[in-house]
Backbone:
């Protein structure tokens, strides 16, 4: 088999070829490592490459497959993980200079589960400092492979760039305020943010305990479902992980959209939203209707207060997570993360309790919306594809902050699962995207809806020219 465009195959496709012995895992892994060596000097998506370990894992996978042992669809497939996931004996810095020499003595649960599934882990992907908004001043941010002048997303920027650029067949990201969805939208990936508690957080650096979600970033909804099937489930090391059984997210994937009730709040989806986002959403709605989706107008609860509350709540939880090193090593922090922690430390107990009550109220109002719908359709962000110049002035641009967070952080505050799907391009040839949102623990509907949409469109099969 020619290696031409191997790197842009979907995860399930390369997995089938490896498991059918059309291509070896070693060949696929070596090709990925060569491509990383060729391109990542400019893209900066990897924080740490695990070349020797990856080739050893690939050889082991090939030996098992040759004996007829297939662990599942990820067996032998080269993937990568965000560098906040503990990886035994491997530097795991979480985008922070403070942790640059930290080498965990065990794998985090998600990494262990990926290894058990036979995945080949190529390396650790770069992220913003502590998984918040900004990269540490001493770290070069990953570069959008579609256009270097446009934002690559935060904080799972390395995951989005590597997946989009063909430097891994799938990756793990995390999302506290939008950081699976931002880089998925910016780089043209499919990102699945599971229900809070669906995936164990044990062995991952914490940003905000009740807001952090771990999930897959891939080239298709089917790939995301395959990865989620592996990493989801209860974990004795994380008592907040759900005890609900994990479904086979691919089993009912092909049932289509017919009969599914799709909620749309037209006013919320279009107010102060860029034209490129509006056109992406309108085109997606037409496809969904043509596929038999039952489009229903709904009224989404006003998220303005819960968005404002996200910052101090995240700050309080981040201050707790960093108590061992902040403020004692404050001078080693970048201004963004330090500012968030200071915001958290300034809150009173009364402030915090009011936020908790408002959050619970909002969560209940969102649950009520889903009494009459199966899925909610919303933009990924109100801003189609911000430039790096725009993002440099983010702190002073309230409209840009609002446009980025309006459709992301409300669903971290509720813990709701979402899937982000590529849905078009801007005039600058950068991707645009939209989201489906479902009830808690109904990720199978997200995978099903995403699969149906991607069977009818080709946006997820478009790749940057590198």
Residues:
């Amino acid at each position: 088999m020619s290696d031409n465009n191997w790197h842009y195959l979907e995860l399930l496709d390369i997995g089938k070829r490896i498991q059918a012995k059309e291509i070896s895992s070693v060949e696929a892994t070596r090709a990925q490592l060569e491509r990383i060596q060729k391109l990542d000097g400019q893209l900066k998506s990897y924080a740490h490459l695990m070349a020797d370990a990856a080739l050893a894992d690939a050889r082991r996978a090939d030996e098992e497959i040759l004996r007829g042992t297939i662990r599942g669809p990820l067996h032998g497939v080269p993937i990568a993980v965000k560098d906040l996931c503990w990886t035994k004996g491997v530097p795991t810095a979480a985008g922070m200079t403070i942790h640059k020499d930290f080498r965990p003595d065990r794998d985090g649960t998600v990494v262990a589960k990926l290894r058990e599934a036979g995945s080949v882990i190529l390396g650790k992907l770069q992220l913003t400092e502590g998984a918040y908004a900004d990269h540490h001043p001493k770290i070069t941010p990953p570069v959008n492979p579609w256009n270097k002048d446009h934002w690559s997303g935060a904080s799972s920027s390395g995951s989005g760039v590597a997946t989009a650029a063909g430097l891994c067949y799938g990756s793990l990201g995390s999302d506290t305020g939008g950081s699976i969805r931002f880089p998925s939208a910016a780089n043209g990936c499919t990102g699945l943010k599971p229900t809070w508690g669906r995936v164990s957080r044990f062995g991952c650096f914490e940003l905000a305990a009740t807001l952090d979600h771990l999930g897959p970033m891939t080239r298709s909804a089917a790939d995301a479902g395959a990865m989620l099937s592996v990493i989801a489930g209860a974990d004795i090391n994380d008592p907040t992980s759900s005890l609900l059984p994990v479904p086979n997210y691919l089993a009912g994937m092909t049932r289509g959209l017919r009969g599914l009730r799709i909620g749309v709040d037209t006013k919320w989806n279009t107010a102060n939203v860029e034209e490129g986002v509006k056109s992406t959403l309108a085109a997606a709605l037409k496809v969904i209707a043509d596929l038999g989706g039952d489009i229903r107008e709904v009224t989404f609860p006003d998220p303005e207060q819960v968005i404002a509350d996200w910052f101090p709540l995240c700050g309080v939880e981040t201050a707790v997570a960093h108590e061992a090193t902040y403020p004692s090593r404050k001078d080693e922090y970048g201004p963004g993360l330090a500012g968030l922690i200071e915001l958290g430390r300034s809150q009173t107990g009364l402030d915090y309790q009011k936020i908790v009550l408002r959050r619970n109220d909002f969560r209940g109002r969102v649950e009520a919306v889903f009494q009459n719908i199966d899925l909610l359709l919303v933009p990924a962000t109100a801003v189609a594809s911000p430039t790096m110049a725009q993002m440099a002035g983010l702190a002073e641009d309230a409209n840009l902050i609002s446009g980025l967070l309006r459709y992301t952080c409300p669903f971290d505050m509720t813990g709701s699962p979402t899937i982000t799907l590529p849905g078009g391009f801007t005039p600058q040839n950068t991707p645009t995207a939209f989201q489906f949102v479902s009830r808690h623990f109904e990720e199978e509907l997200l995978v099903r809806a995403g699969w149906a949409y991607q069977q009818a469109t080709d946006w997820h099969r478009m790749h940057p020219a590198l």
Observations:
- The longest strand covers residues 418-425.
- The chain has one domain: 6-461.
- The chain has a mean pLDDT of 96.
- Residues 6-461 form a domain with the Amidase signature (AS) enzymes fold (CATH 3.90.1300.10).
